[in-house]
Amino acid sequence: MKYLILIYSNDAAWSALSDEQRASVGAGHAALTEQLADSGELIVSHGLADPSMGKRVSVHDGQTMTSDGPFAEAKEHLAGFYLIECESIERAIEYAARAPDAAFGTVEVRPVLVRNGSLDI
Amino acid sequence: MTSPAEVEDLLRELAPRVLGVLVRHYGGFGTCEDAVQETLLAASVQWPADGLPGNPMGWLVTVASRRRTELWRNESARRRREEAAAALEPPDPGPVPAVDDTLTLLLLCCHPALTPVSQVALTLRAVGGLSTAEIARAFLVPEPTIGQRISRAKQRIKASGAEFRLPPQGELAERVTAVLRVLYLIFNEGYTASSGSALNRVELTGEAIRLARQLLCLLPDDGEVAGLLALMLLTDARRPARTRPDGALVPLADQDRSRWDGAAIAEGVALITSTLATAPVGPYQLQAAIAAVHDEADTFDDTDWPQILGLYELLDAIAPGPMVTLNRIVAVAMVHGPRAGLSQLSAAEADPGLAQHHRVDAVRAHLLDIAGDRSAARACYQLAARRTLSVPEQRYLESRAAQLA
């Protein structure tokens, strides 16, 4: 099964961290990425640029429109993700708990839909 | 001229034997596996164009040995190590190796130091002879992910100190169980409902069946190996009837049984019947026996539910689990009526393995539907549709809910 681990960062909590703490967040993600790569369960992981660097895209009458950030400020924003493949959601949760952000931000595990299935009993 | 498909079949057949010869001769599973993989790719291009060599096994062993020596030299140079001259002699392939190392290879690929996803990838490549690209397509992940997964798995095996030989007799049963689990995972991954996007995908169900057949040749007296092969055959037999042309799922009750694969059913039934008569019973055998009861019913209404219920009760006793509980409850409902099933379902939900599981909602919806409670059934189908992780199941559950509106 594939799972997406979403890392949400909380601006207030992040600002309150010392430089050392921020560095340890980076090191914690590097360590988690290495553990997942070593176990063969990592598909891909990335950190995301600040939300203000994002573009919102919409199409009206065939015309692509974009709008620039910053968008209406949310308390938390998506700051990174891990796409992993492992046995069970319990295992995915174990990894999610190792994301340093679990201690001060929000970490979410979402199962990825599969294309196979059957109704045989 | 030999067709690419025939070459492919032959290469898959020979892959584990070539690898076995190399590892036995040189040691160093990781490098040997890389060399064999490259040799298989070369042969898959060269043989269909130039024709088969006189001794395909000998060709593969010779070319793979040469490649392995090159790889080994490169690595050795990096490690500034001297090369032992003896290791340069290519092993004598012979027409058939004296010892079939396929079992040793399978056990190594399913080594307990590896996670299940790594066991699966390594088994498909080293024993199944599939390329990294084929495995990546089959599992819908990028090719470098599989490449990395395999190379890390090989590093882990090396670090664990595992050697290329059969584990001691006392550990063998447990290690074989791990292999069966990996083959079952491969089978289920391929047990796909959607016919679209299947183009270019290796048939994982077929591959799992092929590997299970090989394993049964190596361990003919292992009842669970036979049970797993029978289960796969009896399940895969229903595939032609399991989906409509647009990919929509057809439940067992509505399947056109004339489209089931009679030959696979006959083989599976014969295998499970003889196995149950001779081997100690195990979970795969019981699941195969249940599949056989379904497959032998001419119509859904002819299904021998009391027998299925008895088999699930046995399975529940020797290998309990949330899915066994759920399937047993379905059988209870078919034998004793939907209300009996519903009341057991409420009790079973206390199991944390079943809490919030979409299949609980789907079963409840189905039983409420049979009991005539349309509005409650509809709500449960909707809940199940939201909770399932399978796109085709979701479509089916939504359509059932819509029919009850």
Helices and strands of chain A, in N-to-C order? EHHEEEEHE
Form type of chain B = elongated
- Termini Cα gap of chain A: 21 Å
Global morphology of chain A? flat
Uncertain runs of chain B are: 193-200
Count of helical stretches of chain A:
3
**Number of strand segments of chain A:** 6
Instruction: Give the helix level of chain A as a range of percent.
Output: 25-40%
The first-level CATH class name of chain A: Alpha Beta
Strand order of the largest sheet of chain A: 2-5-1-6
Average pLDDT of chain A works out at 92
Major sheet of chain B: none
Specify the structural class of chain B: mainly alpha
Computed over alpha carbons, the radius of gyration of chain B is 24 Å
Structural class of chain A: alpha+beta
Rg for CA atoms of chain A: 17 Å
- What fraction of the residues of chain B are assigned to beta strands by DSSP? under 5%
Oligomeric state of shown chains: heterodimer
Number of domains of chain A: 1
Second rung of CATH, namely the architecture of chain A? 2-Layer Sandwich
For the report, how would you describe the main beta sheet of chain A?
4 strands, antiparallel
Salient structural properties:
heterodimer, A: 121 residues, alpha+beta, Alpha-Beta Plaits, 4-stranded antiparallel beta sheet, two-stranded antiparallel ribbon, B: 405 residues, mainly alpha, Serine Threonine Protein Phosphatase 5, Tetratricopeptide repeat, 69% helix
